[in-house]
Write a sequence for this structure.
């Protein structure tokens, strides 16, 4: 059965940015949506975030669609690879798989999520889409592009969307709907 998972990024929570808006849009269409809070910042690591998904592991299937922001796409990839789970789609928003640089507080907690080899992910995920912006204040354009290429994703590039968060004016995200 098709269902949706929304995963926020570092120092974030499930009620910020466009996440509640997307959750409501999907629920209005009758879909089951999982939009949890993941432990951050002090408790943020792969094991603690995995426990959140483990609690609904029986709901993750080949029709599941994940919408992940910032560090969440690489967390999900690591989780999928570690558990050898097949999913339908990953929509990555500002995803990356390397140190940000210039933001040590983010680099220190994100390091637990990085993956050395993501090449097998495309065998476990039918469709991969990456949204990112040329003016993201955290993720360098080159790093977002490199990440998208590493997972063989369709790239959707914005000019002035920042980090696709509230600070950048993203309390809604209409463009994402057509890719769901």
């Amino acid at each position: 059965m098709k269902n949706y998972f929304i995963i926020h990024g570092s120092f974030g929570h499930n009620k910020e940015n466009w996440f509640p808006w997307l959750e409501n849009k999907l629920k209005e269409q009758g879909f089951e949506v999982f939009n949890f809070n993941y432990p951050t910042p002090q408790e943020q690591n792969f094991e603690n975030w995995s426990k959140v998904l483990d609690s609904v592991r029986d709901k993750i299937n080949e029709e599941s669609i994940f919408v992940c922001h910032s560090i969440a796409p690489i967390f999900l990839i690591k989780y999928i690879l570690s558990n050898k789970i097949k999913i339908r789609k990953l929509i990555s928003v500002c995803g990356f798989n390397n140190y940000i640089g210039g933001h040590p507080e983010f680099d220190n907690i994100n390091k637990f999520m990085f993956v050395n080899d993501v090449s097998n992910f495309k065998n476990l995920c039918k469709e991969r889409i990456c949204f990112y912006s040329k003016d993201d204040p955290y993720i360098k354009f080159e790093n977002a592009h490199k990440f998208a290429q590493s997972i063989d994703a369709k790239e959707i590039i914005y000019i002035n969307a920042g980090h696709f968060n509230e600070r950048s004016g993203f309390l809604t995200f209409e463009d994402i709907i057509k890719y769901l």
